[in-house]
Protein: Copper-binding protein CopC (Methionine-rich)
Amino acid sequence: MKAVKLTLAAVAIAVSAGAMADNSGRGMEHGEMDHGSMPDVSMNHDGMGSMMHSTYPEDGAMMMAPVEHLSLHFTQPMQVMNVKLVGSDGKPVALKYKRGGEAMQEFTINLPKLEPDTYQVHWKAKGQDGHMMDGAYGFMQH
Ligand SMILES: [Cu+2]
Structure:
């Protein structure tokens, strides 16, 4: 009897694990856009973890309202050297901002009207110790 119970438990675990995998796969595909391309960018936090306080939009955000600006909020003043906003076609969106200006904790860039798409923000900034940092995050404009 004991062996049968164990087998049933194993089957139950296998079934629930399968159901969970299905849900996570389906949950990413709402609307017509490919949400599958989001996670890689979100995972890439190498070297920026200690300097980046927060971003707008947030990493991995699904933005229903138009995104009119980008904000990088650092934990210490940083001199922003480069910011690139790239859509799913790999082409950068033209941005107007001042490179290599004063070190700031909060850096904001106004955006042109964004088409619905998946976007990646790549940034490079210099810390007060002269250290160059970079990072990337992603969001989706619906
Ligand atoms: Cu979305």
Q: What stands out?
A: The two ends are 55 Å apart (CA to CA). The longest helix spans residues 2-27. Helices lie at 2-27, 39-43.
